[in-house]
Structures are given as structure tokens and as C-alpha cells.
Specification:
The chain is built from four helices and five strands; from the N terminus they run H-H-E-E-E-H-E-H-E. By secondary structure, the chain is of the alpha/beta class. A five-stranded mixed beta sheet has the order 3-2-1-4-5, covered by helices on one side. It is elongated and about 95 Å long.
Length: 141
Amino acid sequence: MVGQGMSRSRRQLRQEINLVPFIDVLLVLLVIFIVAAPLLTHAVKISLPKAASHPAPSDRDDVALGIRADGSLLWNGTQVDTAALFEHLKAEARRDPQPGLRIHADAKIPYEVVARVLAAAARAGLVKIAFISDPRLAHAP
């Protein structure tokens, strides 16, 4: 009996935390976040034309919307305020076939102004929206 007591005291219990289940849970959470991250992005759905080496043909019914550097809006060359702009956008969206909206925005205009115009066009129901740029500046560094 004395010998049995000594052999028990020689054996010491290891008190360690098993980390394998914890690592498994972390890996599952990592995979879930990797899969779910692209779904959390918000974007304005706009059908923009693909970039091309030649200018896109202009339709006679397309509407030109100019945004100057000071934030003023031009509807086919005539200055309008934001309330009148939305009414124009709704009227154009009801036309059949629906005309395209060509946005001529100044290079120094804040993105917020352009985003508001895009949101108004989407609310009005316009689906063909294009941004007009200066092709001579396309190859500048």
C-alpha cells in the first residue's frame, strides 16, 4: 500500500486548457466574415457605359445635365434649381423610350453633389446614365 501511494504522488496531473475547440470556432467565424463582407457593401445601382477608345454616339433625345464648379445645375443649357431638376428627371423617366442622362460635371465639383444628382435620377426612375469626360485628358499622367 505504501508503494501505491508513492506512485500516485509521482504522477502529476497536467492542468492545461484544450485550445483546439477554440481555434475551430475562430476559423469558422473567420470564414463567415469573409463570405459576408462583400454583402455588407452599399452601392448605387447605375448602368454606366463601358470605357471605349472612341466617343459613345449621342442620341438626339439624350438630356444634358451640367454641374458647374459652384454647384449650379444646367438642364440642357438652362439653369435650374434642385426642385426643378427632380421634376425634369421625373418627366424624362415617364417618356417612352426613355432618354439617356448625360452628366457633364466639373472636375472640381465635390463627389457629394454628384452623388445627390445620381440619387435623384435613380429615385425618378432614369436607368441610362452616362458621365461625359474630356478624351484629350485621358492619357495625361
